[in-house]
Structure formats: structure tokens, C-alpha cells
Write a structure and sequence with these properties.
The complex is a heterodimer of chains A (267) and B (488). Chain A is of the alpha/beta class. Chain A is built from 8 helices and 10 strands. Chain A has helices spanning 5-16, 52-56, 81-85, 123-128, 145-153, 185-197, 208-213, 244-254, and strands at 39-41, 62-65, 68-72, 91-93, 108-110, 133-139, 165-167, 176-180, 203-207, 235-237. Chain B has helices at residues 17-29, 82-92, 166-170, 178-183, 190-204, 211-239, 243-264, 284-310, 312-318, 326-331, 336-340, 348-351, 372-395, 405-408, 452-463, 472-479, 483-487, and strands at 6-8, 14-15, 33-41, 46-54, 59-67, 70-72, 95-97, 125-130, 142-148, 151-158, 273-274, 277-278, 419-426, 431-438, 444-450. In chain B, helix 7 (243-264) runs antiparallel to helix 8 (284-310). Chain B is globular, with a radius of gyration of 22 Å. Classes of the chains: A alpha/beta (267), B alpha+beta (488).
């Protein structure tokens, strides 16, 4: 067959097909069966009386308050060790990917509340940035997995650009910051300078358990337990790292581009 | 020592500095490579440790030496240790006398930070500073270029922004957090680091993993290699503006990550590797889905990547850009795919075979040019080799348990006291070296991690010499080193 670069490019284009997911108009892409999403805590009282879950939680995200078990999804690494160790099956990680929340306190799952999807809509951002949101990503410590899953959103599979959302090269071009990492001492100054370089009005998204509460490095003196210690946070997206679907859902609900619950809607 | 072996601390050969230096230089001349060089405070002064990989005997040789607060630097005769010596100096203020460029590596808390850079002077010379906040969605690091017009004369790389105290926090473990430090040492290499850690813990606890678990670990390691290599080829295409392969590979990388998620629920393999085995089994139906996914991935990746290598304008940008000579690569201690692209045949899976690699031998993929083309081509060869390996591993996956009996009872926190253990794996970037010693109670007295990036960052700096500064993104991506794995 005659092969010229142009023909090869066209042939490959046809082979590779159209691959952008239909979500959010269509159903979200399937999650793996072993995916650990939003945790739920049984409403019955703990029958076993052991404290494996409290002792083995790597970040101390599980705790007792007024005799009830609480789980902070903001600092949770979604390792599932609590669920695996619990002889009574009190803690179950479901396949709910919608984890983002406007308020830090909404990240707390307890025996009392937890099944509802937290509110993520931002009044100002959904008014001003709904049709165009330019974000500067700042990696402030951490392991680069959150960055990788933000990058995934820019690929043709997810194509975050179709929502008017874009990662831009300069804070001067941005409407806000998307921060990953616990904010190391060594990145604090750079993060503050980048924030100052973003014009008003501006918003800050904290993505991943590091940026929310320090993640696995919580309480290390080398870091600051999350971006909230340096800047005001407008949206929290939990996960270690959050699934790309969790990040996308968070930003879309933040901008009020999709509703929080199962209701009919138009893009 | 074999990979994944334990020895009592007092059995590590100890030399005076003259012999220590002689043995180091002899090791290098024999063709061995350095895996790690670190210092630990002793009762009086410090102990220097060196670990050398001897691929002709499949062993890792560790030797030690007592020193005070100074010693004559080895760097002038052994450039491969230059960064290790800087690290030792920064941690403990041990001065390697005669080190040509002694400055901090990670900017630990409370250490004096000297931040001046090498500078050229001249009317036509200008300096370009990039980072720590970059234009792309990547990790922080600072790059300082000395340029004459477009040409880079010198590049100095200053990292440490990601330093979050992993090694310090691992001392006193293992505990509930230890595995999470390991899985996030370099987030795109969770399986690689996880496997090295598991080998180390299994060595120190005097137990092992199961054959089935070893097979599953190896499958996951190759999936990790696939995902990253495919992603990197796409990113390299993007950096020269060849958007078709950039678009396709970015998506196909996600397919590979999803295959890892099929195994354990997490796209980066978090939660799969645990000391004593793996946390999740691959049932027959799951293996069927995995292999089916692999077939689709192979088809898509082949068409996307062959397009890259078939396009003359791409090749003209890749060839000759950022070239490193094999001799230089060996001298500075380059490892992994960057070294293989220079023609050095290094691969821990065959040099220090452990577990499954005693029965399954990967083909070591090399190229000779040492340029961006070679680094891209080695990736493509390794993608094909990884697919072959996954199929072979799947076919030969032994039946049985996925967790060693001891691990099920949760005894893995009981380690042999006063011992040193090692674990090395060939991650997708190169060799991942973990070494730790236990105290008298069987807890980690100290833990050291050497990510392949630690060896290779200097290689990127040298590859840029004489190149156009506009080729930096391409060269950087062709190495794609980890900032967090370096900073720890």
C-alpha cells in the first residue's frame, strides 16, 4: 500500500475512532468492581467492640465522637483497611464517586449522615465561571498521582475542554488554582506567590487527600496539612488520588453545570 | 547479598576508608554499578554504606566504613556518587573534602540553604530560570539554564520542593502508614516501590511471598510500565506538536491504568502489593477480562505508536536531540530505560533476579544512540515486551494462596532485630532500591529509598548541553523523571 505521512495519519485516525465519553449527557464510564468510593457506616451500634478500624487507620481518619463512628473522607486514603478488618461489616466503601464538597465539614461521614451527595455548588463561580473556567494547577508536594489524574481529564477520553474548563500555563491567565499536595514547607512561598498572581475574583480547589488534610504525610513537620492552611478553599475533592470522574463531577457541580442529585437536566 | 535477602548488621564487611575507597573504585572498574551510598550516625562519628550491583554474580554487595565529620570526596574519581555525597553532607554536615559542587539536594528543614547557581559571564550569555511552578500540570522543580542565544551551555537542576519527610517518617516502623509512604514515594510507580518494600519486609521478617502473588505482582509491574511508557510516548509527541499520537496515547494510557484498576480498584495499583503477597487475587474470569483488554490496548497502541515512528518530521525532531554517550551514561551512573537507550544493558529483573524472574526472563531492550529517539524507541520495545510478559505470566500463573500464611496472621510487623534487608525492582523508570536496618526491638532504625530518578536527573542536565533551549520540554519528557521520588 502506498504510505505517505498524510495517509498514515488519516488511516490511524479512522482506526482510533471517536472516544470521548458521553458523560454527563450519558451514563458515567463504568468503575471497576473493586473501586472504593464513598464510605458508608452502618447505622447499627458496633457489636464487636474491637477497635481494629480506629487503630489501623493510617491517617487517623476514623474516630469516635459521642460513641458514634465518624470517618473523615477529607483525610481518608481509601485504602479500605477499616472495612476489611471490621468483623461486623460496619464500614463499607461503595461505588459512589461523587465525593466533592463545598464545605470541609461535609466531608465527614458518620453513622447519622453520609448517604447524601454533598453540596458542591459555588454561588460566585457558578455565576461568573460557568461557561469558562481557566485553572492554574499547582503541585505543592505529594506524589504526582493527583496531577496525573488531572492530566487525564485533558485527554480525548474525558475532554474537559468541552465544558469550557482548561488548565492554563500562567496564573495571570487563570480564574483560580487547582492545588494538589499537602503544601510542603519548600513549596509554600511559590504557592502563595502563584495565588497572588491570579486576578480577582478567584477560586481555589483542593484536590486529593494531601491538599485537603496532608494525606499520608499528615502532621509531618515538612508540610502544612493541606492547602487550607495557606489559602481559602472553595471546593474539596477527596481521594488518594481522586478518580478522574470524581474530579470532573466535582468541578461540574461546583459550576452548577450538572445537578447534585438524580434529576433530569440539560447541559 | 541476593535481592530480597537479610543479613545481620555485624556481618556487613567493614573497612577503613582507604580500603573502602579502593573497593569502590575496583567495583566500578569491574563494571558494577552503584545502587546506593548513604550515611548513618554511629556511636562516634558516622558509618558510610555503599551498595554495588554485580550483575555478573547476580549479587548486591554492601560494605561500610567508619568516618568522622569529614572524608575525602569520592566524586572526583567516581562521578556517579556526586549526588549521594551531597545528600550525606546535607543530612549530617559530613563534608566530602574536594567535592566539586557541594550544595543541598532536598533542602531539609533546618539546614542552611545555599541557592547560588553556576553562572557564565559574557556579553552574549543569558540566564533562564524555570519553575518551581511550571506551565504544565506537573510537579515542582527549578531549572536554571546558561544560554548563548538559543544554545544551552549548562543546565542546573534544583529540586527539593516535594520533600515531605518519607524516609524520616519510616524510621520506627513498620506501622499502619508505612505502606502508604511507599505507595506514594513516586505516585506513578506505586507497584514498583510497593514490590521493593514487600521484598524488603519479607527479607527482614524471614518469610516470603507466595508464587501466585509473585506472578500477580509481576503482572501489575508490567501494567505500570505499559501505562507510563504509552503515556510518555504520547507526551513526547505532544512536545513536538505531533498531535495525533499525543491524543491517542493519552487516552490509551488510561486504558492501561484501568487494567490495573481491574486488579485492585485503584488506577495506580494502590492497595494491591502487601508484604507477604498481594491483597487481591485474579480469578479466571478477571484474567479473561484483563487479557481481552490487553488485546484491545495492543491494537490501539500499535497503530498510534507506529504512526509516530513512521512520520519523518517526528524522527527528524527526535534523532540527535539530547544525546548521551554510553561512556558518559556509565560514568554518571545512569540507570533504567535512559541507560538502556545509551546501549547499557541494565535491568534488575535479569541482573538481580528474585521471585518470578528466576523462571521468567524478560528481554532487556536497548538502543545505542542515547538521544530522544532512542529513549522513545526503547519505550516502544518495552511496551511490546511487557505485553508479551503479561501474557506469559498469565499463562504460567501458579495456583495457590495469594498471601503467605504468616502475613494473614498479621505478624509482619515482627522483624528480625539488628539486621539489614534489601529489596530492588525494575520499575518503569529504572531500578528502585530500598534498604533498611532494624534496631534491637525489630523496628526500622533507618530506611533509605533510591528512586531511579535520583541517579538520572544529572543525565538530563548533561543531555541538554549544546542543545536548543526550546528542546528542553522534549528532552525532559524523554527522561520523564520523578520529582517526588527524588525529594521523598
Amino acid at each position: 500500500m502506498i504510505s505517505t505521512p498524510l495517509l498514515s495519519i488519516l488511516r490511524t485516525r479512522i482506526q482510533q475512532k471517536y472516544r470521548t465519553i458521553s458523560y454527563p449527557r450519558g451514563t458515567p464510564p463504568p468503575l471497576p468492581d473493586r473501586f472504593l468510593g464513598k464510605p458508608e457506616i452502618g447505622s447499627f451500634s458496633c457489636p464487636s467492640g474491637c477497635d481494629y478500624c480506629l487503630k489501623e487507620c493510617p491517617t487517623g481518619s476514623l474516630f469516635l465522637k459521642e460513641g458514634k463512628i465518624h470517618l473523615d473522607t477529607g483525610t481518608c486514603l481509601f485504602c479500605g483497611v477499616c472495612s476489611k478488618l471490621c468483623p461486623a461489616g460496619m464500614i463499607q466503601f461503595g461505588n459512589e464517586y461523587r465525593l466533592a464538597a463545598r464545605e470541609r465539614s461535609d466531608l465527614l461521614v458518620s453513622q447519622v449522615k453520609g448517604k447524601d451527595i454533598s453540596d458542591a455548588r459555588h454561588e460566585m463561580a457558578s455565576r461568573i465561571f460557568k461557561r469558562s473556567l481557566k485553572l492554574r494547577q499547582v503541585s505543592a508536594g505529594g506524589c504526582a498521582a493527583c496531577e496525573a489524574d488531572c492530566n487525564v481529564l485533558t485527554t480525548i477520553g474525558w475532554d474537559i475542554g468541552r465544558f469550557g474548563i482548561q488548565f492554563v500555563a500562567s496564573p495571570r491567565h487563570a480564574d483560580g488554582l487547582l492545588i494538589t499536595g499537602p503544601v510542603t514547607e519548600n513549596m509554600k512561598q511559590a504557592l502563595e506567590k502563584t495565588y497572588r498572581a491570579v486576578p480577582h475574583p478567584k477560586i481555589v480547589l483542593a484536590v486529593g487527600s494531601c491538599a485537603i488534610g496532608g494525606g499520608p504525610y499528615r502532621d509531618h513537620p515538612e508540610q502544612l496539612n493541606g492547602a487550607g492552611s495557606v489559602l481559602p478553599i472553595d471546593l474539596y475533592i477527596p481521594g488518594c488520588p481522586p478518580h478522574p470522574l470524581t474530579i470532573l463531577d466535582g468541578i461540574l457541580r461546583f459550576l452548577d453545570k450538572i445537578p447534585g442529585r438524580e434529576e433530569p437536566w440539560e447541559l | 547479598m541476593w535481592n530480597g535477602e537479610r543479613i545481620p548488621l555485624h556481618q556487613i564487611p567493614e573497612w577503613d576508608f582507604t580500603d573502602f575507597k579502593r573497593i569502590s573504585l575496583e567495583s566500578y572498574q569491574k563494571g558494577n554499578r552503584i545502587a546506593g551510598f548513604w550515611a548513618i550516625p554511629a556511636k562516634t562519628g558516622y558509618t558510610l554504606f555503599q551498595a554495588w550491583i554485580d550483575s555478573s554474580r547476580f549479587t548486591l554487595d554492601i560494605h561500610q566504613c567508619r568516618i568522622g565529620s569529614t572524608y575525602p570526596s569520592l566524586t572526583p574519581e567516581l562521578p556517579a556518587v556526586h549526588l549521594f555525597e551531597r545528600d550525606i553532607a546535607e543530612r549530617f554536615r559530613i563534608v566530602p573534602e574536594g567535592h566539586p559542587w557541594l550544595k543541598p539536594v532536598r533542602f531539609y528543614r533546618g539546614t542552611d540553604a545555599r541557592v547560588d547557581f553556576f553562572q557564565m559571564k559574557g556579553e552574549e550569555i543569558h540566564e533562564v530560570a524555570v519553575g518551581p511552578v511550571h506551565a504544565g500540570v506537573i510537579e515542582p522543580g527549578h531549572f536554571r539554564f546558561q544560554c548563548n542565544g538559543e544554545t544551552v551551555y549548562h543546565l542546573e537542576i534544583s529540586l527539593g520542593y516535594q520533600h515531605r519527610g518519607i524516609e524520616r517518617a519510616l524510621s520506627g516502623g513498620p506501622n499502619a502508614r508505612s505502606i502508604h509512604y511507599i505507595e506514594t514515594a513516586a505516585g506513578d510507580t506505586s507497584i514498583g516501590h510497593g514490590t521493593a518494600y514487600a521484598l524488603l519486609i519479607e527479607a527482614l521478617s524471614g518469610s516470603g511471598s507466595t508464587e501466585r502473588a509473585d506472578g500477580i505482582r509481576a503482572i501489575a509491574l508490567e501494567l505500570e510500565r505499559l501505562a507510563n511508557h504509552i503515556g510518555d510516548l504520547g507526551a513526547m509527541a505532544g512536545d513536538i506538536g505531533f498531535l495525533p499520537t499525543h491524543s491517542y496515547c493519552g487516552r490509551i494510557r488510561g486504558d492501561a491504568l484501568n487494567l490495573t484498576a481491574l486488579l485492585c480498584g485503584n488506577r495506580f495499583g494502590r492497595g494491591l502489593i502487601r508484604p507477604g503477597g498481594v491483597a487481591y487475587d485474579i480469578e479466571d474470569s478477571r484474567m479473561e477480562t484483563l487479557l481481552q483488554g490487553l488485546r484491545l490496548l495492543e491494537k490501539d497502541a500499535t497503530s498510534a505508536i507506529e504512526l509516530l515512528f513512521d512520520t519523518p518530521s517526528v524522527m527528524s525532531r527526535f534523532e540527535g536531540t539530547g544525546a548521551l554517550q554510553a561512556e558518559t551514561a556509565r560514568e554518571i551512573g545512569l540507570v533504567g530505560l535512559a541507560a538502556r537507550a545509551c546501549g547499557l544493558s541494565l535491568d534488575v529483573r535479569t541482573d538481580l533476579p528474585s521471585s518470578v524472574y528466576k523462571r521468567i526472563c524478560p528481554n532487556v531492550c536497548t538502543a545505542t544512540a542515547g538521544d530522544c529517539y532512542a529513549r522513545a524507541f526503547v519505550r516502544w520495545l518495552e511496551i511490546q515486551e511487557s505485553i508479551r510478559l503479561i501474557r506469559q505470566l498469565a499463562e504460567s500463573l501458579p495456583n495457590g494462596e495469594i498471601q503467605e500464611e504468616k502475613a494473614l496472621k498479621g505478624t509482619f510487623t515482627l522483624l528480625e532485630p539488628e539486621s539489614l534487608g534489601i529489596g530492588i525492582t525494575e520499575g518503569w523508570r529504572g531500578e528502585i532500591f530500598h534498604v533498611a536496618a532494624t534496631d534491637s526491638t525489630g523496628k526500622f532504625a533507618w530506611y533509605r529509598i533510591v528512586d531511579p530518578s535520583f541517579h538520572n536527573w544529572f543525565g538530563l542536565a548533561l543531555a541538554l548541553r549544546g542543545q536548543q533551549i526550546s528542546d528542553f520540554p522534549l528532552c525532559n519528557k524523554s527522561f520523564n523523571l520523578s520529582y517526588c521520588g527524588h525529594d521523598l
